[in-house]
Amino acid sequence: MTHRAKTIKPICLIILDGWGLSAQIDGNAIRLAKTPHMDNNYKIYPNTRLDASGEAVGLPEGQMGNSEVGHLNIGAGRVVYQELTRINKEIKNGCFKFFPNSVYQ
């Protein structure tokens, strides 16, 4: 029996920082611009869209993301909950314990 080695094909991760995708046309510079190269790339190459705000990147629901948060989540390969979201999540699921303290009463 002959086994063929799998060919490893190159892959390229391209992050277009600030390039948002939205169906809205009014006030949307990317939708209003002529982008033939990008339009063609979307047609012929595999691609995906990532959510870059709110709970998808560890921020509170509806909060706009930023470069730092986006790159942190992409680099980690998972949702990295930011401080406020992490604390609220731990309070909700009972992991965050409150200790009596006269300073905060």
From TrEMBL:
Name of the protein described by the UniProt record: Metalloenzyme domain-containing protein
Pfam families: Metalloenzyme
Organism field: marine sediment metagenome
GO cellular component term, pick one: cytosol
Listed GO MF terms: manganese ion binding; phosphoglycerate mutase activity
InterPro entries for the chain: Alkaline_phosphatase_core_sf, Metalloenzyme, Pgm_bpd_ind
GO BP term, example: glucose catabolic process
Every Metalloenzyme domain range: 9-92
